[in-house]
Amino acid sequence: MSGPRPRRAAAGAEPPTTRARSSRKRPASPALAILSVDIGGTHVKFRVNTGPEVRRFDSGPDLTPAAMCAQLLAQTGDWTFDVISLGYPGPVLHGKPVLEPHNLAPGWVGFGYAAALRHPVKLVNDAAMQALGSYRGGRLLFLGLGTGLGSAMIVDGILEPMELAHLPYRKHTYEDYVGLRGLKKHGKKKWRGYVLEVVELLRAALEPDEVVLGGGNAPLMHDLPPGVRLGDNANAFPGGFRLWDDDVNARPHVPEGR
């Protein structure tokens, strides 16, 4: 791919807060207890980096951000944590949602998460958080095959959330063919073909070292080509932990009084 690769930010720089470094640099202090939260259209799942237990509660079209925060605090009352990572099912800019999620109640844009949760919060797109948890080094392209199409890229440790879903593809968009609508409309066999075609188009354009397919429908994929592997939805948790490895590119929102 032509052009220079992204440069790492200097310690005193103020790069966009949508970026977050991987764990290739300074790791978070072992004393920092982190609650990692994956907000989905059917469940909210969460765990801390100090133990293996995963807890969850139902989400859905009636879940408001205030209700989510209240349930999260209620179900983690016996856990100790210092900071929180939130994986949000929609576009995020400068650490804040910019569009309402499709499968949840409205009110997520402009909501005060740090104040409601009474902890410093870092919020990123859910695909970006899962990408960070899947990262092994080099140039990684992550594609989340779920209700829609989530996407993110990590280049030499720098995470860049992407919004590829609504780019034109064939007669519609990428999401129309490889999201849930495409799976239901075309069936598994054709859907798999579209997924592989999209993967090859994006590999040619972005030149990743590897592609990770995540999301709820990724297990439907078989016979993947070299350089493409399946991810795991559970990778969202270590991705949330890694958000706190370096405070340069993903600055937290801190509630007043802390």
UniProtKB/TrEMBL annotation:
EC number from the UniProt entry: 2.7.1.63
Organism domain of life: Bacteria
Recorded GO MF terms: polyphosphate-glucose phosphotransferase activity
EC class: transferase
Biased composition regions of type Low complexity, renumbered to the chain: 9-20
Keywords: Kinase, Transferase
Protein known as: Polyphosphate glucokinase
Species of provenance: Deinococcus metalli
